[in-house]
């Protein structure tokens, strides 16, 4: 647009100078032509001196919140770039098409800046951000030349962090509480089995005082208790068991899973998460904190994207073969359609054979693709795909 306006103004100056023989307009027209070609040379000069690259290879984000990909831009020339534009192709793993994100800025001579390219994060998973193009413009923004822009970034989009309200019906199963009562609300005594007696020290709880021994010796004695054992829970996932392996795992499943892990961690429980990939390979992950939960989610993201991509490529291959057979053998349309349908059903049944839910005999808890949390064959709670956010806030899960 600026170039078109500049050419119109330059043509008008030449016309006025030629028609009315005005010397100032003649000088202006000549200066405009010279500036036009100088800016063209400057843009080519800046092209070899402006570089851009992502500041890292992995960026964490939260679903729906968006994020910015840090990109370092360096200008090694002695001329400022009035404007530069960066375009990045952003797509989820397994997708062919993506969305182009743009950023426009400016950079002074012989300087280095860091910018943030905005990225939308509507779904959970791994976004692949790849450089598409970088253009550097002259000080008048008339001409643009491609600059150097290399490096790819993985944007890991995690679920929104929520905590499920979890209460264990047996706060410390198998542990003797020394006569202290435990209730359904999860509140229990602070102590376990008595290890030995020792003299009272300032700061000791009065509930730990051994009153009979203290009365006999006229000295306060307190009970020293065994440390509480660590709680451990096993959670089995079956995200592909209630749907086609060619579909992506819904965001609701990731949100509920992450909320369950956060709720268990809040109750001091470590978790072993187990699942079977669509390829039939067993996977397990031991989770004790938020970092290990995020690493487990990354593995689940990768399995889901691989399953979706493999299914999509298989469908494309089947369609190609079907079209080639129809063109080559000139078979009837009805026969080709029935054969393609039969082959497709065989592919899907093979995927399900590896992911069938045999969780009825498995210990611990199960979260399946229908968003149902189960303990053995007993349903603890079935979440709604549309109302799971409200349910995580108001529902208490008794495990």
UniProtKB/TrEMBL annotation:
Protein name: DUF58 domain-containing protein
Keywords recorded for this protein, A-Z: Membrane, Transmembrane, Transmembrane helix
Biased composition annotated in UniProt, kind: Basic residues: 328-342
Feature: compositional bias, Polar residues: 346-358
Chain intervals for the UniProt region annotation (Disordered): 311-361
Superkingdom of this protein's organism: Bacteria
Transmembrane segments: 29-46
Pfam families, alphabetized: DUF58 (PF01882)
Signal peptide: none
Domain DUF58: 198-245
